[in-house]
């Protein structure tokens, strides 16, 4: 038996007993070494209390670990016991165009499996994973960096890919939580001049450490006016990570003509006055996580440029500390948290 973390809703979690998992055909058994805490976890954490008969699922969708066992039919040349890996936290049919291009979360033959939501996730010592979701991990990247690249940092990478080339651009990142800080770090390394926006001076200080050329506390100044002042008219690119409607609106307003907005944060709304924006030729792109192909590209980029992804983590926890860990994470005043095993 092992214990796994379950989100009960109403800011409650529990550690429940589960049978030790066994890999099925086409799966591997993963010994989890790191399981990141993602901002989207808070949607489950803060949700209404679960019904007594609701399906029970172990949370956590940012795993890194070591292969412990191969299921039937798994190629022992591609996958080996003892191999360190990261995980693309979705699995699809494996045969449709979306799956074959790495976008398994957009599987067209049926709902995709989402680890930590519709299948047991990584907030436990072991989990089973489809081989289509298992990705190689460089020895020079840490387990916690791999966990972040699997979702939080990877989501920032996906958003930057969605808005196109950012080299030489004035790029503003709204929100400097783990995803926003990752966007600041990655965009700087990709050649952008980054302006970081947040309400917390501590996060803006971290943004500077990750390469931001300018920072704006949106609680003390109007961010749109300040961005236009710092860019001589508006940003080339904006990335919105906070999920706040006010931030999304400001991000759109801050764009220069031909500007591009990438929207990542969940919960916000954008209302476009077509008459106002038509002549400015702006582009708005939503971005949902990243593909497995992009996850490998992101990991290789982080490795090659020696980016300090580990510094995103302000707290390292054991599973026994889960109640305290999510209470702290819920405040959204610190950096990223991770369970290590």
TrEMBL record:
Pfam families, per the entry: ADH_N (PF08240), ADH_zinc_N (PF00107)
Record-given protein name: Putative zinc-containing alcohol dehydrogenase
Database matches in SMART domains: PKS_ER
Keyword entries, A-Z: Metal-binding, Oxidoreductase, Zinc
Any GO molecular function: oxidoreductase activity
Cofactor(s) annotated in UniProt: Zn(2+)
Source domain of life: Bacteria
EC class of the enzyme, as a word: oxidoreductase
Source organism (scientific name): Rhodococcus erythropolis (strain PR4 / NBRC 100887)
InterPro entries in UniProt: ADH-like_C, ADH-like_N, ADH_Zn_CS, ER, GroES-like_sf, NAD(P)-bd_dom_sf, Zn_alcohol_dh
Chain segments annotated as transmembrane: none
EC number(s) per entry: 1.1.1.-
Positions of the Enoyl reductase (ER) domain: 9-339
Sequence similarity: Belongs to the zinc-containing alcohol dehydrogenase family.
